[in-house]
Automatic annotation (TrEMBL), chains A, B:
Source species, domain of life: Bacteria
Organism: Georgenia deserti
Residues of the SnoaL-like domain: 17-108
UniProt protein name: Nuclear transport factor 2 family protein
InterPro entries in alphabetical order: NTF2-like_dom_sf, SnoaL-like
């Protein structure tokens, strides 16, 4: 497959290839689909660049025991993917990713997940009721 | 428009009509797109039926000051929508909804949002560091 064909793949194809690759315990290979200057919006704030993204998503991916792709849609420029994950601390942790793709790589990602079960599991927050008595 | 035409609308049309309606301060009218026996998965757990859904989503919708539709895709049976919301307590609270539609109404919804800022704002959880000193 020559480069012109490769780079003409739509955003959905790239988003799915990225998802398949990291969810098969191959986060390093999945980084091939991430632009070096990726701009990411996470629930905890913005991240800039591939290495920041690797620190965020790679760390999470390493804890994932199972993934299930729930839905994926897109067009040439953007894709929206919803998946579920299972981790030791959180049995069901779905994520949604809206990505834009340019030249076969993800250049922006808005990722959405529920931080609460992770923050509770990590002891970063505690239920207010735990301090009542 | 007769009933047969109305009920042939694809899932994306219905999901967008539902979104537009509730985000225009018309949650009661938006309930016209919700099946009475809707099955909902929320980050806090499952909900069953239109009245349970109204209690959950209607209460939230009443607090929303602004919405922005970020992406919406779908086909005849399912749609996936990502939007951002602004509420008094949480300046940016995006939500993702995967819905299935039958006969012009949403019969299942998997809704994803970050519970953490809402739980902090409501005092349901507190940062663990608040108890260090």
């Amino acid at each position: 497959m020559n480069e012109s064909v490769k780079t003409s793949r739509g955003a959905l194809d790239i988003a799915l290839a990225y998802h398949r690759t990291w969810s098969q315990d191959a986060f390093d290979r999945a980084m091939a689909y991430i632009a070096p200057d990726i701009a990411v919006q996470t629930p905890a704030g913005p991240l800039q660049g591939g290495e920041a993204f690797r620190g965020f998503m790679g760390q999470f991916a390493a804890t994932v025991e199972a993934t299930e792709l729930l839905a994926a849609y897109g067009d040439d420029a953007r894709a929206l993917v919803l998946y579920d994950t299972r981790t030791p601390d959180v049995p069901s942790a779905p994520g949604a990713e809206l990505v834009t793709v340019r030249d076969g790589r993800i250049t922006t990602m808005r990722i959405l997940f529920d931080q609460l079960p992770f923050a509770l599991a990590a002891g970063e927050v505690v239920p207010a009721t735990a301090h009542v008595e």
